[in-house]
């Protein structure tokens, strides 16, 4: 059997150092993958004059699995978000953002275990109909939801819940006000829920969801929602477990999947060996699970949990005084 090749985009800022950390840990746990390194973001712009070179797109398509560090899209007009472009190009319709408490972080809760599943290609982020009037006094954008898109994402959420032995799926919406788009999403979510009688189904308005997540997060298990709400809710959930440094993300389509750190490229600490690589290590755990390597994924998760709990060589954001390379060594030793 030929080896699995993984496309690796190291990314900008702290990206290269945290990706190196994740790859070292994958090797230490006994993964035998080939890696094809390609560029995107500012690193690619400097080399090729493009944020997303064709060679990078070809590699993602060819290898199907990608591990990626944070990318910087230059702010301002003329540059489309690289992440949005990748999601559209490869139809990565499902964004999967799990958060789990690790003992030893400075989080306010200690028993969080929530997965947010966000529709990745429609809604407010599809970029449709964006216009600003010539005099700059009015702006508008269009949100579009299709029955097919809603059905795909809600089905994905229930299938994931079933596969992972989850008990409950909450559809998050704003159908009371956005009667057309959110209304369609909710209608479809209810239809899909009926196909999964063994899983408890709930529905909740997005603002109430935010309040409940802060007050009683234990009420949630799997949440499924549209693009804009999912973006906001998944970051709120990251805040429950200690911030974006503890939150990975997967973008999954029929033919390709991209696993990533969800935080920014932190240019202020780039090259200083200070970054916490946990987010991208957790993303590599998601990747292993996707590839059917659950046992290796669990070993890495336990090693991270041990290091954070004992405070052995943790990074500053975890209350320690060590850097990326020390933290990585501690995880490798814990394995």
From TrEMBL:
Q: Per the UniProt record, which EC number(s) apply here? A: 1.1.1.41
Q: Which SMART domains match?
A: Iso_dh
- Which Gene3D superfamilies does this one have? Isopropylmalate Dehydrogenase (3.40.718.10)
Q: Which UniProt keywords apply?
A: Oxidoreductase
What's its top-level EC category?
oxidoreductase
Report the domain of life of the source organism. Bacteria
Give one GO molecular function term. isocitrate dehydrogenase (NAD+) activity
What sequence ranges are listed for the domain Isopropylmalate dehydrogenase-like? Answer: 5-331
NCBIfam families in UniProt:
PRK08997.1 (NF006529)
Q: Which PANTHER family match?
A: DECARBOXYLATING DEHYDROGENASES-ISOCITRATE, ISOPROPYLMALATE, TARTRATE (PTHR11835), ISOCITRATE DEHYDROGENASE [NAD] SUBUNIT ALPHA, MITOCHONDRIAL (PTHR11835:SF34)
Give the UniProt family note.
Belongs to the isocitrate and isopropylmalate dehydrogenases family.
Question: What is the name attached to this protein's record?
Answer: Isocitrate dehydrogenase
Organism of this sequence: Pseudoalteromonas spongiae
The organism's lineage is: Bacteria, Pseudomonadati, Pseudomonadota, Gammaproteobacteria, Alteromonadales
